[in-house]
Amino acid sequence: MNKLISRLVDIRSDDELRGLMWGTAYGFFIMFSYYILRAVRDEISSADRGNLQILWTAVFFVMLLAVPLYSWAASRWSRGVFVPLANRFFIACLVVFWLCLALLPEAARPWIDRVFYVWTSVFALFVVTVFWGFMADCFDNSQGKRLFAFIAVGSSAGGMLGSTVTAVLAEILPTLSLLLIACVPLEIASWCAKVLHGRFATGNVKVAGESARVISGNAWSGMRAVVASPYLMGIAAFIALMTFASTMLYFQQANLVAEAFSDRGVRTAFFARIDLAVNVLTVFFQVYLTARIVKWLGVGLTLAIIPFVTMAGFVALGLYPTLAILVVVQVIYRAGRYGLTKPAREMLWTVLSREDKYKAKPFLDAAVYRGGDLVSGWIYAGLAAAGLTIGAIALVAAPMAGIWSILGWKLGQREEALAKAQEKKA
Predict the structure, then answer these.
(1) Lowest mean pLDDT among 21-30, 185-194, 216-225
(2) Three-class SS of residue 352?
(3) pTM (2 decimals)?
């Protein structure tokens, strides 16, 4: 196994290989579960597209409640307890949704859909944020630059399998069956997290018993840490600009797909096929390009690439606002974001403290992310209400993607400076 993986990854010990494989498996099952549910959520966005900005407002306020609760849990239990606990909480929620869909009358379906949409949006950010925070805690900065791209491959492979399962079953089985299927990989992911916690220490602080220590601070520590740190504020701005670009594409997608397809099952299958294409291209990036690009160009330029490409995509969509162009831009954007930007962005956290990884990171990745969605959603609604077409909105978004690119480059420079400072102290 070491010889096989070493052809793709710079492995420097057997223990590092084992950590890599368990981390990859954890990511695989997390994304397997999520991508079973993602197409179901996206179909709801097309069916209820007139209320999208209201749903995103609800998501934001739920996040404001969820982040302090998660920080409280991190202060009460070690990572080996609260990480599996978070996953199993979401499993219990899926069972409750299944019961509601199975037992409540059809007239309740629109409201179940809306609650499920909000819940899935919270689920998507929390399980992924917890996963990458855990990876940044298990591996140090040097390991992250070598290993995170391959770990992300596991996540993409899980997404591919989840998308395939949904694309095949969406037109055969009722939606509620998919909810129960998604519970299985989520439970397996909990066991992977437990193994990683028990066998692998923290990345930056190799102190006996450190990984079993509960995280200091209270429910609001993450918010205070972000305000006090220019570096974390930069990451917050990067996330906000990323959500702006994502929201513009997402709302355009919802409108164009709703106009093209009227059947809900066909729309769900269409979204699943887009997800599958995204994950295939993402794996190509992660296996063959990401680690090499980070090594050749550094974290900063790696973070700048996809925002720059997105700016060009918005210009293309502004000139030719069709579903075909939208799908091409969306696939390239999402594949690049997951394949290049996501691993590089997670490397920014390897130079920070455990408290930042488990407290500030959820606040940024969850509350700030959804806050960006909220503001961007209302901006899109306002631009549409003012009479701007899909093409005109895309042209408005293009300069913001350019600013996003510059910020990514600056953050990478700061990460490298912090990494060098840590090496000198060691």
Answers:
(1) 216-225
(2) coil
(3) 0.72
